[in-house]
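anyone seen this seq b4? input:
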Amino acid sequence: MSAALADHRLWEVAAQVTDPEMPMLTLADLGVLRSVSVDGDRVVATITPTYAGCPALDAMRADLAARLADFGEVEVRVSLTPPWSTDLISDEGRRKLAEAGVAPPAHVGPRTTGPVTLSLAPPAQRVACPRCGSADTEVLSRFGPTACTALRRCRSCREPFEHMKDI
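predicted toks r here
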């Protein structure tokens, strides 16, 4: 088997690993899985967590190592550069989020290098309800069940929902 074919097969296997906090998404859907390849006698997977203190990092590493173990010794590397962004979520991942009742994040576009600006003001964006599509929604809490989500409610259908924050 050629190296390119082996790397492709490894990617296919690793891309099936689900995110521990949002199991409707794979690490590939989420854009956390960056690469998988053979390096000498071991398989090396590289991931970038959604943020540096992500509590799911150990679970992601263990799940990837277990899934790839049939191919030999596995090393899961963590890279924080370039940083993860919600723009890395695939179209399929955005569809899966909406199907699960989580409003997907907006695209934030290219970033400049250097420090990330922090704003403590609530977001001014309009987020469509993943259930009925209405843009008439309100923030209930800027902090949801995971660090990446906020809680919102639709004023039209009155249903609460999670919104994945735009990062």
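The CA atoms of residues 120 and 142 lie 10 Å apart. The helical segments are 3-14, 27-30, 57-68, 91-99. kinda curious what u guys think
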